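Researcher: If convenient, please comment on what follows.
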Amino acid sequence: MSIRYTHAVLCRIPLSLRNCGEVQLEEAKKQHQALAELLRELGIDVIEMPPDENSPLCVFVEDIAIVCNGIALIAQPNEPSRHKEIEIIQTVLKKELEIPLIEISDKNACLDGGDVLFTGREFFIGLSRFTNEAGARAVAAAFPEYPCVPIKVAESKRLKALVTMAGSEVICVGAGKESQEVLKRIEREATYNYQTLTVPEDEAANVLYINGTLIHRICDEIPLSSKVFAEKVEFPIKVLSISELAKLSSGLSSCCLLVHRPRHIRNI
């Protein structure tokens, strides 16, 4: 089951991002702009929000919302510095894209969008220090039409740092022990049998599959995995550098919130 994306929400990089780690800010900006340009080449309507210097991680918009079937569940990050980002995302989704919003009522819930993998058939929710069981229950309540399966991951990792969708019903996963253990849990709990694409470098597992095109990191960043993608993938491939932003995130998926905006918006 393939999703046809129409829009992507991005947030430009604040100068304050340099305070979060050894990030080369100018190179990070070039990489981020290249992502925006590529999304437009693929026919995506890109909305770029201005940077917020008080929220250094605001570029990682995936963490702040989960959008599916014409509605958006607003996430609940456990990092207080990110709470200001919620209002901005809400405004963009509601006023610019006219997408109905669902907010989490449980104050004890923690939910990070980077822990939410939607396959087109079901949700897998990574349980880590970023997302707890109450957060997973919020996803299940927001999208009751789909199975919602909690998957334990390492405390320091988001689920989508380990597995992403690399095609319709194809899961991309790293060859490392931690990634393979997560894959086994997914296969054990899944309601559908997926194909898998295993890549040698774990950092290569975070890809974007957008409207029939696979986007992965450039060969210099994932030399072994680039060969696997070239040999195994039979549809169009595009490559991007994400080396600087990946120092602080799961990779490519972290930097954009992909949206399928239906012609007829759902009422909730």
